[in-house]
Amino acid sequence: MSTESANIDIGTPGNYDYGKVIHASLLFYEAQRSGKLPADNRIPWRGDSMLDDKGDNGEDLTGGYFDAGDLVKFGFPMAYTVTVVAWGVIDYEDAYVKAGELENVHKMIKWGTDYFLKAHTKERELYGQVGDGGPDHAYWGRPEDWPKDKKRPAYKITESAPGSDLAGETAAAMAAASMVFKKSDPTYSAKLLTHAKQLYAFANEKRARYSDSIKEASGYYRSMNGYEDELGWSAAWLLRATNDSHYKTEFEKHWKDFNLGDLKDKAYANELGKTRFFWDDKTLGLQVLMAKVTGEEVYKKATENFMHFLTEVAPKTPKGMIFYAEMWGPLRHASNAALLALQV
Fold first, then answer.
1. Structural contact between residues 215 and 268, judged by C-beta atoms closer than 8 angstroms
2. Does position 230 have pLDDT exceeding 90, yes or no?
3. How far apart are CA 113 and CA 10, in angstroms?
4. How far apart are CA 30 and CA 264, in angstroms?
5. pTM for the full model?
6. Are the C-beta atoms of 96 and 89 separated by less than 8 Å?
């Protein structure tokens, strides 16, 4: 963070200034930017980086966001991040306006979607990773100083090596972002929606886990929960963005075929059930989203079951925070649960 952001006073305990929290959160994303930085870059210790990122045929793959403290660009969690931030802007735009951060959050989303547009090189081709985890983790340096002789490979899904979860989540990100920019930039919004529809069709018609096609991602962001939730999630976002009944029909097929209303956890089986909304599992999010969009009882009931779990069953800290004990920490799950609870 910049010197300014490192010393932000967000208020006293119990009386937080959430405008400053939003400000600091957006600076965090800006610190993760890859590529040619804009003139209004607010992170003084960041510079241009990874300007040679290219696809197999020389396609420009600069831009996007680095992952965590790494220098790899993992498309799957990056797309989830953009989807969820866009969701917050769509439903709580007034909060961003009040905080004076609407323009900055638009820039944050567009930095991601501009990259996704580059990565979607053909109707049924999408680059989902740039860089390799092994060499990346062996490099202890700044992205600005990445050695010129260290090549960064790019990996994609194609018709013969598909990835429904990656394509579906990227479709969801573009559909949600199209709503964000619908008033301020209708041409860009329409472009995003066109790509979202193409990627959804690719995801639905050529079904597979992306980490089976991009094997280099499997050690970092392997799709443990499968692609079924991303098919439902992307159909739900396209329904919200277009109000086209086709996507409602599509969603209803996924809901039935994949049993998306069931709280039983397929991949992380434990006594807590399916209780986490995060980059690998969108089931709870799609339940809440469809309850909001359609108002139909079947989705409202699924959402009520989750809210009952949160309030009555979920483990909590002494101060009442939802607590999931796992190696990557509980705060992401608590904050994601809070976003869904706000939607109910």
1. no
2. yes
3. 30
4. 37
5. 0.93
6. yes
